Amino acid sequence: MTRIVHTGDTHVGYRQYHSPERRRDFLDAFEQVIADAVADDADAVVHAGDLFHDRRPELPDLMGVLSVLRKLDAAGVPFLAVVGNHESTRGGQWLDLFESLGLATRLGAEPVVVDETALYGLDHVPASQRDDLDYEFDSHDADSAALVAHGLFTPFAHGDWDTETVLQESTVAFDAVLLGDNHTPDTAEVDGTWVTYCGSTERASASERDGRGYNIVTFETGETADQTTVDIRRRALDTREFVFVDAELGSGEGAERVQSRLASYDLADAVVLVDITGEGEPVTPAEIESFATEHGALVARVRDRREIETEAAAVSVDFADPDRAVRERLSEVELSGAAREIDDLVRDDAVVDSNLRDRVTERVRERLDAGTLTADADDTNVTSVDETNDAGDTNTTADTDDADDTNTTADADDADDANTTDDTDDTDDTAQLTMEDLT
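The structure assignment produced for this chain is given below.
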């Protein structure tokens, strides 16, 4: 029997809401997972990508992870992982550095056998490059096998990577597929194989209302290899309290009503997220946020949905086809080919908001790799994808603190900016490291 802790999307270093306390929370959650694995004497910890929130983690975050991995190593529990899109760089990966220090193993096409189970890895691969994948994995003689991968797989929400194709074309028969990228935990059976997301270890957006945790996956083989039993169970993590307040205002009700609703909750050290709907009087978000912090909240954010609806209703277009009007206006502007591709992505209804940043990042990276994107007259503001802090996740992309954003994770304190692509560096940033600094 092989017992594995399956975790992922830890996003260490994410300074959510520009809060240093929230930044520490993400490392604390990762530490909890590792402490549990040591206490339970797990056979291995498998990380399904996005260990870090940014491809250039800051020194405190890097040192924090190293400290945690050393504790795991001292306990004799192997750390096996793949690279997610948030931490992926165009050169060497941080995971490679940890491997060189003897603290981790990067999973790939060759099997890493733990007890009776062979483990393989598949890093995040942009959608545009997946057609070139051959899914060739080296053979093994273990009793069971599992694939660890990072991406949005079917049949789960926002899935754009076909799980059936992976299983059918793989040269190894997998008993389970252990996934990261989607912050919502979920499990399904595809072609007789159990496929599961462990979910994120901390809430990375307002849409992640459920508690956080990770998976414990057990492989037990019967008399023959085809009788392998896979048991997947959730274990909860003790993370910072999030207080979600839905305030529907009736006629004549305003800030006092919202404050009354807040007063009924324990706000101590909590992240407080308030959604205002209904009729009622105008409400100043800053007033409500101040009230919450005065009553002990660590962070408070207010979104008045009535303002959003009013602004949307106020927009008037005299054209029967608004998209055509936009295209006509853009035709008058001398956009580069890259800019036009990005515009097409932004206005493509088939691309959900939570996937947008990832798609744009992939498209820019493809052009950079192909040498078709340069800082010339047509692309004046493009330097290098690695010089921007755009981690590009779906389900972990642009943390807009928007309850409608599914599993978002970048940092913008604008509750209404659903496609934010700027994870800005604040004045309290400490030094950032690149792979070149340590290799």
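Interim note for the steering committee: Confidence is low (pLDDT under 50) at residues 374-432. The two ends are 38 Å apart (CA to CA).
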